[in-house]
Structures are given as structure tokens and as C-alpha cells.
Amino acid sequence: MLAYPQIDPVALAIGPLKIHWYGLMYLIGIGGAWWLASRRLHAFDPTWSREKLSDLVFWVALGVIAGGRLGYVLFYDLSAYIANPLLIFEVWKGGMSFHGGLIGVMLATLWFGKRNNKSFFQLMDFIAPLVPIGLGAGRVGNFINAELWGKATDLPWAMIFPTDPAQLPRHPSQLYQFALEGVALFAILWFYSRKPRPTMAVSGMFALFYGIFRFAVEFVRVPDAQLGYLAFGWLTMGQVLCLPMILGGIALIVWAYRRQAAQGVTS
């Protein structure tokens, strides 16, 4: 069994002001995405300035934060937030939904694309390889907060989390998700998107592999206490929300390549 590293969730305290690691992880994700996007900006559109890229990153980041928080409220714990609406603003305690954040990003991208003469999938294909940076950083934040841990296990890398009332050795599922949703997904999308691909294909790859990785980790992750398992004694809300991503990702990839082949024949 590995010892859980006792890390104070508060990275810096200046009087009453507290800066949490969880919040810093979002800044790292957004900053890293902007930096990598700037490296591919010329290939994406040589007429775009860094200022326009910064505008895109700002609106996408806003979509992540607003969508992620509202998604968690709607998908995972609506009754608690209805009882105490002020809890919605306590984001430093966690409680963000990837799927809600994805919806927020899609809406922000749709709006930004209409204002800048870019199609929805042109922008989504550009953004998709950048997202795993934020996903990986967010999972590190979950680990530091000692939240979203896994099921009990006797594996040698199990950990006892200080927030676990039962104090059982558990899967460090946050680290599994960091490795899969952060590192592996980034590698897949970054290398796949280095060559020109048909529009929608990169977005499809993102949806497909994120859905697969998240669906798999949910088998060893403890479901949210207020929800538990939704069906069959094992299906979680995360898995329910990932199923349409997997199917949608496959559909986008097939559609992208079929459309490319059809255009090649007709031309």
C-alpha cells in the first residue's frame, strides 16, 4: 500500500484570502491550452492573431467553468443546491461536471464561430487536442482534495484517503483518470491531429476515447454518494453520460471519412 501524500488543499493563504490547488489546476489547464494552441495557430488559420486566440480561449474557459458547475448541479446533486443555492458558488470545494463543461464549451464555440466565420467543427477540431491538459490538471486537483476516490482494493498501490470515513485502502482513481484522460488522451489527439484530417474526425476521436477511458475507470471509482448506482448494480451517472459520447464519437469519425471519400469521388 502506498501512503497518501498529505497535501494542504490550500496552496497559499494571505490573511482571509485562500488560493486552493484545485483552482490553480484550472489556471494551469487554461494556460497550457493557450500555449499549445498558439503553437498551432498558424496551421489552423494564418490570418488569426494571438489576440483572437486569447478571445477564443477566454470564451471556452468561461464555458468550461459555467457549464461544469451547472452540469454538476443538474446531473449530480440538484436537490442539495435547490435547498442551498449559495453552494453553487463554492467551486473551490470541487463539484464540477466534465459533461456539463463540454456542453458549455460547445455553446461557447458555436457562438464564437458564428462571430468569426468558422464552422462549429472547425473550431472543435482545433480545441479538442488541448482539452486533455485541463482534464489531467483537474484530476490532480481531485487527488489533492482527496475526493472522487476509488473502491476498496488490496492492490499494492492502494491508498487510504483522509476524507474516507471507512479508512480503507482504495484505488487512487483520480490518478487513473489523470493517466488516461490527461496523458493518454492528449498523446492520441495530439499525434492524430498533427496531419490534416477530415473535419469532425478529431472531435470524434476525442469523444470516443474520452468516453471509453471514463467509462472504464468508473468500474473502480466510488459513485457519488447522493446518486449511487443507477442500474444493474454497476452503472453510474458518469457511464450513462459517456455512452452517447462513445456512440457519437464513432458516428462523427465514420461520417467525416465517408464525406471526405464522397467529396473525392465527386471532384
TrEMBL record:
GO molecular function: phosphatidylglycerol-prolipoprotein diacylglyceryl transferase activity
Subcellular location: Cell membrane
Matching Pfam families: LGT (PF01790)
Annotated residues for binding of a 1,2-diacyl-sn-glycero-3-phospho-(1'-sn-glycerol): R139
Keyword tags: Cell membrane, Glycosyltransferase, Lipoprotein, Membrane, Transferase, Transmembrane, Transmembrane helix
InterPro entries attached to this UniProt entry: Lgt
Membrane topology category: Multi-pass membrane protein
Major location (coarse): membrane
Transmembrane portions of the chain: 19-36, 56-76, 96-113, 120-140, 175-192, 199-217, 229-257
Pathway where it operates: Protein modification; lipoprotein biosynthesis (diacylglyceryl transfer)
NCBIfam families registered for this protein in UniProt: lgt
Similarity remark: Belongs to the Lgt family.
PANTHER family per UniProt: PHOSPHATIDYLGLYCEROL--PROLIPOPROTEIN DIACYLGLYCERYL TRANSFERASE, PROLIPOPROTEIN DIACYLGLYCERYL TRANSFERASE
Record-given protein name: Phosphatidylglycerol--prolipoprotein diacylglyceryl transferase
Organism: Metapseudomonas resinovorans NBRC 106553
Gene name tied to this protein: lgt
